[in-house]
Design goal:
The chain has 230 residues and is mainly alpha-helical. It has helices at residues 11-25, 59-71, 100-107, 138-147, 155-161, 170-177, 190-197, 201-229; strands at 51-55, 78-82. Pfam families: CoaE.
Length: 230
């Protein structure tokens, strides 16, 4: 349920930062950093633990740990609750506390690593794919890139184009799904076609096996056109 969980830093990096913090705070401190492979970790099995540091929002987790310890025949841990630091610079969409979720929000739009140099890839044109759900901002970003001189390829428009009479997928789609998907003027009724494939994985695959290769071919043609235009 984490916000932008794809941008969570790797475990090794997070552990290294924790190690650096602990050594900064008190170089003589003895500590173990243990990977957690379940929600409880060693807190419900280690007889030597005496205290668990929690915040207001994780106190219930601490209470769940103590319940498990009692079930395992171990004494309860003292729960020491700390106040979380407030972030004075958080935006309206970010959390009030200092939070890695807010950090991930701020990473949006930044280059996480330089473009990969692959000798097998041509230097131009540079191809960027925009994906995301409805309302995620694809159209806005595409317009911004267009203003900067990018050649825009709209896969949705190509998806419509393959269905039109004379289009590359028209004959195959009609042959696969029957003349009942046609309007009186011979165009494909996308609502009727959608009703045939919606919720039916086999029919949906039959449709995408026809349509997607044609869209991909058209995209490649347009990428070639963009390259020719420089």
């Amino acid at each position: 349920d984490k916000v932008l969980m794809e941008l969570i830093e790797p475990y090794e990096l997070r552990a290294a930062k924790l190690r650096e913090f602990l050594e900064d705070v008190k170089p003589s401190l003895r500590y173990d950093i243990v990977p957690l492979v379940d929600p409880y970790g060693p807190s419900v099995t280690d007889p030597d633990l005496q205290c668990l540091v929690v915040s207001e929002e994780t106190r219930r987790g601490g209470e769940a740990v103590n319940k498990k310890r009692l079930e395992n025949g171990l004494p309860e841990l003292a729960l020491y609750e700390i106040l979380l630091m407030k972030d004075p610079d958080h935006s309206q969409n970010e959390e009030e506390k200092i939070s890695s979720s807010s950090l991930r929000q701020r990473l949006l739009g930044t280059l996480l690593r330089p473009p990969r140099q692959d000798p097998a890839l041509p230097s131009r044109p540079y191809v960027i794919g925009l994906t995301g759900g409805t309302g995620s901002g694809k159209t806005s970003i595409a317009k911004l890139l267009g203003h900067l001189g990018a050649f825009l390829i709209d896969a949705d428009k190509l998806g419509h184009a393959v269905y039109v009479p004379g289009g590359p997928a028209y004959e195959q789609v009609v042959a696969a799904f029957g003349a009942e998907i046609l309007n009186e003027d011979g165009t494909i009724n996308r609502k009727v076609l959608g009703a045939k494939v919606f919720g039916n994985q086999e029919r949906m695959k039959s449709l995408t096996d026809i349509v997607w290769p044609e869209i991909a071919r058209m995209v490649k043609e347009q990428i070639g056109e963009a390259g020719a235009q420089g």
